[in-house]
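Changelog-linked ticket: NAI example.
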Amino acid sequence: MNVGVIGTGMIGTEHVRRLTSRVAGARVTAVFDVDTTRAVTVGAIAGATVHREAHDVVDDPAVDAVVIASPGDTHADLALACVAAGKPVLCEKPLATTSGAALKVVEAEVTYGRRLVQVGFMRRYDGGYRQVKAALAGGRIGDPLLVHCVHRNVSVPPTFTGDMSLTDSLVHEVDACRWLLGQEIVAATVVDVPHSPLASPELRDPRLVLLETERGIVVDAEVFVNARYGYDVRCEVVGTTGTVALDAPSTGAVALDGGRVQALAMDWQARFAQAYVDELQAWADAVRRGTAEGPSAWDGYAATAVTEAAVASRGTRMRVDLAERPSLYEGQSSP
Ligand code: NAI
């Protein structure tokens, strides 16, 4: 399978590396980035053609499938171009920056008649999240009542502004909880907490968000993108007879000088390294079988609708009013 990659920044570069050396049955044959120097450097990793426009990647007859890894506000238009060309696409999250734009991708895919779009919610491929999902599916903790989530980054680049802790970070918790619980989220409330003086003031960091599902389960999610000490993602589902929590991957424990220290990942690349490989492998396998199985355009739309409500919240409870779910997406909660 020949893959074209649009956007060769941090995650685009890693996706090119993974598709080149870790994913069976796929290779990168075309790349584009508005920063031509980056595109040339990253394209050389795979021996790929460097195109002059994003749409040239989509239209390249030698490209079978596309990865979109450019900034979020470019995603919806590029995903629409892929659907128009009938090409499978792995679109990094968020699918779009507004629910209206995401819904257009859903509608285009429904008109096309089969799924082509997978959204990069790679936590669904993480071993720890899969264990939580399996425990829930097996009824091991009874009925879920509430969920505690934490999403902490060491720091964020200067390009990370305003509400991106909701649209770009919280969106992962939104998708993970929708998937784990098998329910839509119907309301979001952002609770005001003191701001860290170490974060740029416009970031309003940390944030505490309450999400409510259609069957009344409440999720509290902390997003803190200047936590400094490490990259720390937690998730605990509390049920009627027990709880199930995400285990951080083992890094070994060092006992020294009267203390015991367990190292944390310092960024998402390290914490979710295997999940990204497994996500790409599953996507490539599905595309080669002519199917699409991972997080769908509907999942991307529903998650963006929730983060949009969170952005609008500013302390008040905002309802999430979703469009009617098309039958194309019925029963889709894989992997
Ligand atoms: P980045 O800023 O490192 O890279 C973005 C790249 O896109 C840059 O090289 C930039 O020159 C290029 N670019 C800008 N406009 C473009 C356009 N119109 N067409 C083509 N290329 C363009 O950002 P990063 O961290 O790699 O994020 C990219 C996307 O991936 C974002 O949507 C982000 O939310 C998502 N992401 C997803 C992660 C996940 O865990 N699934 C983790 C990190 C990022």
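Closing comment: Example verified and attached. The mean pLDDT is 96. The longest strand covers residues 144-152.
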